[in-house]
């Protein structure tokens, strides 16, 4: 997930994806586990689909931007189909991506990010490590700082001890100075006239001032050797005490392990039948998972067919609504009645015209017949008159 986040930053996903959808930046472990966002579990899946679609488009293949109301199974199947098109082997069911988190989600996004980077011509190069001289110089500077700090601490300690302890060198100089002065030796034996009690009181009073302390040098090898001997003795004594406890602890652990092994054998013998049943149930579960994978493979095709049928149904419903509205409307009936009335009027007019035409034709026929009859009578009259003269 951390490597994936770095690749997304290289692809500038913050400006091209997050700013477009008004989303916050991803954390280092955003797609690791689903309980990361307990208040809105669907947000991770939607974020996964948005980033996957953007990466597919960046890799050079057209992919529509998913919406929140889209079918999750169809969206996941489309993403896996595009991933297979890049030559990536997918050996896990699509249901592993529906949670929007986990190992397979990170795997899919990582491979898509690699394809997008490959299309942009970006490649990671090996880092150039600096030379080791800088480290040596820094170590020398640190040693110098430590040495200076130690010298300052020693000087402060010496100053504190000089205030409370009499200087041994000053005492030596005072002794040599007194020895250099001419001594006046008495000729007779001196006898003290001071009381012994007063003398003891004076000694007790000046005794703290007469105390001489010689400072020890911590850098002396003899002191270090003495400290080593002391530590060695302390380690030996501690080892003797700890060894007995460790031996006892070892015995207790050995007895406990023996009890655990014997109890484990007893439990295995008692639960052998249950283990066999569990193995059988596990085999059945694997078979059921395989059948589920096979069945889920056709869900996408059935979803597509369902969408087509739904579109066809909507179109038929719209046509039925249009026909129903036209059937319930009385305007066509009124038009038909008006047309029939007009047609009847035209038929009456045609009947009148036909009658007029028939009458005219009858008159013409009668006239023609009368003319013919007249002509015939005329011919008949002319024939007898011309007969005797012929």
Structure notes:
The protein has 12 helices and no strands. With 390 residues, the chain is an all-alpha fold.
Show the helix and strand layout.
Layout (H helix, E strand, L loop, with lengths): L1 H9 L2 H9 L20 H17 L13 H14 L17 H18 L12 H32 L3 H13 L15 H11 L14 H50 L1 H26 L1 H30 L2 H56 L4
Order of helices and strands: HHHHHHHHHHHH
Q: First CA to last CA: what distance?
A: 144 Å
Determine the structural class based on helices, strands and strand pairing.
mainly alpha
Tertiary shape: elongated
State the helicity in percent bands.
over 70%
Largest sheet descriptor: none
Enumerate the spans where pLDDT stays under 50 for 5 or more consecutive residues: 134-148, 162-168, 179-183
Could you tell me the mean pLDDT? 78
Total beta-strand segments? 0
Percentage of residues in DSSP E strands: under 5%
Cα-atom Rg, whole angstroms?
A: 61 Å
Count of alpha and pi helical runs: 12
